[in-house]
Design a protein that fits this description.
The chain has 337 residues and is of the alpha+beta class. The chain is 24% helix and 34% strand. Strands 1, 2, 3, 7, 11, 12, 13 and 18 form an 8-stranded antiparallel β-sheet that branches. Strands 4, 6, 8, 9, 10, 15 and 20 form a 7-stranded mixed β-sheet that branches. A hairpin with a 4-residue loop joins strand 12 and strand 13.
Length: 337
């Protein structure tokens, strides 16, 4: 699970088929904000991880809070974003955290029905790409989509007590169009390979809406979790995962070394002659490997480029959150934005 060292006890992870995906270290993107204090705060309160995405796999987000974290406010909210779009907002109260252990799993955006509600399950969808000539106006519109895909984010805030309100908002999540093709140059710089699409739906309970203030302002969260999801191949190009051919090269060199060990029983003159031949073969393997890697680094690898994030303006007003009436069951937040 992803954890911020300065705030232990609050954890987040991405689940596929109930199992947590392996997380790989990643550098935080440089945050730019008109208020330097805001940028500095968010920079130190962000933890970023890479995870591997597989086409067609349904996933969910899990948040867990446990000791040594101590709640020092009426409520703590967890705003969940997928591909730049708000999908869910679990809310933890002091009452829910009274046992010192609280967790929630979010499977997707939820819509209210006449009786109960339904959640649309999220799944990884491969981005179809093309290298054909594309008009600049089309590239400009496509860039709006490719800029936001490839990331799952969780923002944690301290909240006030708030009050119950009536809300009829409907989720407006726009999943990735499977048939749409995006130009390679829009995807290459960050190694993006997947987006998120909505799949099957299932019935869930509906919860009460609340309105509450950000105690520290929206621009000053307790912490921010960022999960950059990429295919295995893309992670290799980003040097997050080792390349598949690395093991093969090692095996080749090991074979040459083992053959040298089997020459002890030969005539000394023949043995020396064979050793020279094997040495030349071993040198050739290393030379070919170096050339191959240089070519790959120059023309095939896609190196990550840090993105400049444009943060929302600071909000010190009210937002809508939803909480089940029973204080012993889980709660949710729903934005009116």
């Amino acid at each position: 699970m992803a954890v911020l060292e300065c705030l232990p006890g609050i954890e987040a992870t991405i689940l596929v088929e109930g199992e947590a995906l392996t997380e790989y270290a990643a550098e935080n993107d440089i945050i730019i904000h008109k208020n330097p204090a805001t940028a500095a705060w968010q920079q130190t309160r962000t933890v970023t991880k890479y995870i591997e995405s597989t086409t067609g796999k349904t996933f969910s987000l899990k948040v867990n809070v446990k000791a040594p974290y101590k709640i020092d406010c009426p409520k703590v909210s967890f705003s969940l974003y997928v591909d730049g779009q708000w999908i869910h907002g679990p809310l933890m109260t002091k009452g829910l955290y009274k046992t010192g252990n609280w967790s929630i799993i979010s499977e997707g955006p939820t819509e209210k029905l006449q009786s109960g509600a339904q959640v649309a399950l999220m799944k990884f969808a491969e981005i179809q790409s093309t290298d054909e000539n594309t008009e600049s106006s089309v590239l400009k519109e496509d860039k709006k989509v490719t800029d936001r895909v490839g990331e799952i984010m969780i923002k944690v805030h301290r909240r006030s007590v708030g009050k119950v309100i009536e809300s009829k908002n409907k989720p407006t999540f726009e999943g990735l169009e499977h048939s749409k093709k995006y130009h390679d140059k829009l995807l290459a710089k960050d190694g993006k390979s997947h987006g998120v699409a909505l799949g099957d739906t299932k019935e869930v309970a509906w919860s009460t809406r609340w309105e509450a203030d950000y105690l520290d302002g929206e621009d000053f969260p307790l912490l921010i979790f960022r999960f950059k999801y990429r295919s295995a191949h893309a992670l290799q190009n980003l040097h997050v995962l080792p390349r598949a051919d690395s093991a093969g090269t090692v095996d080749q060199e090991a074979t040459v070394d083992s053959e040298e060990d089997e020459l002890d029983d030969l005539d000394p003159e023949i043995r020396e002659r064979v050793k020279r031949i094997l040495a030349r073969a071993k040198g050739k393997i290393k030379s070919e490997t170096k050339i191959k890697r240089d070519y790959s680094d120059d023309e095939e690898d896609v190196k990550p480029v840090k993105k400049v994030r444009s943060n929302k303006k600071r909000m010190t007003g009210k937002t809508t959150i939803d909480l089940t009436e029973d204080d012993d069951v889980e709660a949710q937040i729903v934005s009116l934005e």
